[in-house]
Design a protein that fits this description.
By secondary structure, the protein is of the alpha/beta class. It has five helices and six strands. It comes from Pristionchus fissidentatus.
Amino acid sequence: QFIHHVLTDECSVQLSANNRFVFCLRGDVERRVKSVHKNPVRVMIWGGISWRGATPLIMFDAGTKINSSTYQGMIESGYKEWSRRKFGDHATLIQDNAPAHKAERTKEYFEREGIKNLSHLKEGIHKWWKETLTIKTCRKYIRRVQSQMRKVVEAEGAPVHD
């Protein structure tokens, strides 16, 4: 069980409507996508999720290089105090295999600050995901997300259940 674990990641998000799929209520022409921006704004977002809620989101310019120092800054401003409030000293950080996460300086920082993480399990988790997520299963997940999004739109953003 992942009761004391916090899964974090960062991703780049494009702030324009250029998706292949647009979800809107039938007859609601006001919300339909009307144009595609030539040079859309992009931002990088870092965040985490756990049994006890989500970390604060950290946003920065998409051109920002995520190196060990930048990553430590994200942990300082978005994770450290939040995890102590939610978990005391019992939180365990789980991150992907990005170079900034496994850098020697980052490992030293985690040790110095007393932040527990599961970096030693990353290779096993990565191998398991590679074997588990085939193209067929990815398509199945995409269809499921699209189905759920239709329900969310129909419920006007309210939580939906199967």
